[in-house]
Task: structure prediction
Amino acid sequence: MSAVRAMVAKDLRRRLRSPFGLAAVLAFPVLFAAMLAVTFGSHGDRAPRLRLLVENRDGEFLGNALVSMLGSKDAAERMDVTLVSEGEGEARMGRGEASALLVVPPGFTRDVLDARPVRLVLVRNPAEGIMPEVAEQLGGVLVEGLDAAIRALRPPLRRIGDLSRDGAVRVDDDVVVGIALDVKHAVDSAEKFLFPPVIALETSSDASGDAGATGTAAIFLLVLPGVSVYALFLIGDLGMRDLVTEGDLGTLRRQLAGPVRPGEIVLAKAAYAATLSVAGLAVLTAVGAAVLRRPVDPAGYLLLSAALVLAVTGAGATVYGLARTERRGATVAAAAYLVLAFAGGSFLPLESMPRAVRAIAPVSPFYWGAQGFKKLVGEGGGAVAVLPNVAVLAGLGVGLLAVGAALVARRMRSRAGA
Result:
């Protein structure tokens, strides 16, 4: 074992003399998570609000009712609605003072009552990206709801339209009773859908989901675990790559000429890669701890970290056990790790991925690493919660390390005999 320790110490001293590659890999997850956090968390605890201008060119009761609905208390919690005069909305949109402009056309009320096609006009602000899309989706929902309501209330609306046709208003008891009965029949026919609703939305506030942080810090902690797993695999790749590099340079043959067996060299490289991964994990842990506002279960964190380091080392050993040159191995590793990281949810939440990607995500070791750290950091889980992740990563690491070690040892013996 003294030979293994000496080789590990030699590799570490060499890495310390040229630390820039390792520093770049460690900086990537921190910078990536920070950029996303600053971009999407700049509003702090308050979600960005939709700035909507409404231009009511109708002026009659249905147009006024629509404007009142958009300016209701519930709507005010999510968006800022401003009623503007004709021409003012277009001018304010030109100055970039709103995300969208909704125009209620003239004759809106009359067209609805007479069952004629009518269109609401939505003007988007091209200078903004997300909020005009929100306005368009909101407009679509609004139109669908109004269309359904108008179709359901067609009989009473027809009666109301007849009352004011040609400017004459004729209201008597029979008309009022008829409108009331039409409304009652329309409601009764839709009762099974409305009372209670067929679809209901239940909301809850999960205090454990933000890792004790809010706003920018919460997004940073949401992104950091998955990207850190990707960075650790790259660090392991840097360590195991020396197996091929030293073979190409001829230093491996000189080592084999001494009293060192191939298995000891493989073990030394694996220990070196694991040491680099542990050091990288310690740095990333310190960064996360500086932002985290509540403790993480130490037993679960240590177990998951050890299993992940084992998987990282095994993956690197297998890649460079199969690769014949350093360039080929680095290319294959970079491509494979990138694909597995995306499929495993290292960069984007799995919930936003297509169903096909979510179905294959458990095949990726990045999935088990990223989800394990999210359980600990984001959900406040303990060692029991991450045991499945630990088992998968440890089993994968042992299997890949055995395969990689056998491949590398066989190549070393063949080179030693050449």
In short: The first strand starts at residue 50 and ends at 56. The two ends are 27 Å apart (CA to CA). The CA atoms of residues 348 and 397 lie 24 Å apart.
